[in-house]
Amino acid sequence: MDASKSSLLKHNGVNYLLPFILITACFSLWGFANDITNPMVKAFSKIFRMSVTEGALVQLAFYGGYFAMAFPAAIFIRKFSYKKGIMLGLLLYAVGAFLFFPAKESGSFYPFLAAYFILTCGLSFLETSANPYILTMGPEESATRRLNLAQSFNPIGSLAGMYVAMNFIQSRLNPLSTAERAALPDAEFGVLKQSDLSVLIAPYLFIGVVVLVMFLIIWIARMPINGDKNKQINFFPTLKRIFSVPNYRQGVIAQFFYVGAQIMCWTFIIQYGTRIFMAQGMEEQAAEVLSQKYNIVAMIIFCVSRFVCTYLLKFFNPGKLLRILAIAAAIFTLGVIFSQNIWGLYSLVAVSACMSLMFPTIYGIALKGMGDDAKFGAAGLIMAILGGSVLPPLQASIIDLGSIGNSFPAVNASFILPFICFVVVAWYGAQAYRRSMIMYR
Q1: Is 322 within 8 Å of 364 (Cβ atoms)?
Q2: CATH for 234-441?
Q3: Contact 129, 27 (CB under 8 A)
Q4: How far apart are CA 332 and CA 322, in angstroms?
Q5: How many CB atoms lie under 10 A from the CB of residue 341?
Q6: What pLDDT, in 10s, does the model give residues 278-316?
Q7: CB of 265 closer than 8 Å to CB of 352
Q8: 1-230 has which CATH code?
């Protein structure tokens, strides 16, 4: 056991255990932020009496922050250090969370979007810094194991975010349905809105305090300076070099569509499940809470599947396994589209088992062999998270149609978008597998 620990978190006489624990905690923090936010599309739509499309602007602001700050984060890290990049990310995260209070006082939806954007600018700094930083905390031969171990704490944070969203926000909002709220006089609706917003912002204020404490801990902690010696930017030559690599160039495209699919499947499971359970006679709020429980089950399956897939990578080429699971996800998505009962919801939950492999595998294939260019390469892959900003509003606009034709539910039809995304991911897996086979011939 001691030898294993030494090979994983010790190198050249340096023990990285404490820095590893601190940075790994950040993986849980951004997992929490991601998955407390997905159910908020439905919550904001109800609180502000908006359409699903308008509510999906939450995702546009949230993942837009990732896009806007990825390359500035890479430049900042190159010029200063991983530690300072992580500290700035935590500070922006905390500021964004605390801005929920003045947003609530304003009584308007758009200040919340600004708060989400600032919060996720911080997450962009965190993800662009933490992933490559973990790779440096020990010998190169165990870098992938180290990153997989750190990433396993991300879905734990995600589960915590889902749990808090379900038990401390959704279940505590006023039970009046969307239609009943629409019928309220403006004065009465204003009182109800402020009450619900007070419920919604409380977890964000709490996590803001937690993040600020983490900022102070990392500030005073001694952290390694691995990989921080090269301060040269060479921005455009580096971009030209990394985008000339087919695995990387196509990987950014695949990551865009994968993240879009993930966010759509985890965000609109609430709308999908709510339609099914309300058709069975359930009240809207109870249907929403039950749908969120299915979302938590999907995340648990996602967590377990990540460990299973990591084991399977001992026996399968990464591109080949990526292709297999993307095809399986596409098949399950067809079940989501064409099943108008509980089996469609089961299919949607099953998609998460296939998705668990995709982000880190696309990330790994795209960055393989990049060396010091990996800092900017990582930024490009983080920018691809924009897919989670662009695609959900498109799906929401389909859901707002209500039905396609006379009777086909629009929420079912909207999952054609995740289906297309999984086809793109399967294509990338096939391309990467083909290139790896040519390399070894």
Answers
A1: no
A2: 1.20.1250.20
A3: no
A4: 15
A5: 10
A6: 888 888 878 888 888 898 899 889 988 888 887 887 788
A7: yes
A8: 1.20.1250.20
